[in-house]
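Long-time lurker. I teach an intro course on protein structure, and each term I like to show students one example going from raw sequence to a predicted 3D structure in token notation. This year I'd like something fresh instead of my usual example. Would anyone be willing to generate the tokens for the chain below so I can use it in lecture? Attribution to the forum is fine with me.
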Amino acid sequence: MDEALEFFEKSKVSGFPPEAPTYNAVVGAYCWSRRMDDACRIVGEMRELGIGPNSRTYDIILVHLIKGGRAKEAYSVFKRMSSEMGCEPRVSTYEIMVRMLCNEDQLDLAMVVWDEMKDKGILPGIHMFSTLIISLCHENKLDEACKYFQQMLDVGIRPTANMFSAFKKALMDAGMENTVIHFARKVDKPRNTPLIA
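-- Reply from a regular --
Happy to contribute to a lecture. Here you go:
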């Protein structure tokens, strides 16, 4: 890493300033080395030069803060992110945060982040739906889980086999057989619909 950082420093003084992707790589290298102060210094440098940070920069930092067990700090960084000029969270950023909050048993806060994302018109993908629905099932919030499962189907996303199995099991354990049948029919409907040419 030292040689790469030396090359990075030389390129800055040679009249060919690095661009955001190069800076993001350096931020990532510092994060992997658990040198978060150096990563933050590079982010400050990016600001001074007017080339970032961007949402990818923050995704890198958030992942490493979470891996380091610094969930509160990660949430604080996430909240500050929107105040950065041109640095709105992307779907990947929201996915990182929802997964972290669900894993930290902060389901209510995960749903606040989810609603914020939806209010901004950002559509979640299967991994986000799966994380939230399975977490709701674990917390025995099955009505909420059913609501999000229906939303997922409404936007045209089909569940993975593992996710659907876990969802069905939670519903069956709660004696909600009719709900399982209802959703099983909805999931199977596209598979059984003939294509018309």
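Some talking points for your students: Residues 1-66 form one domain. The chain has a mean pLDDT of 88.
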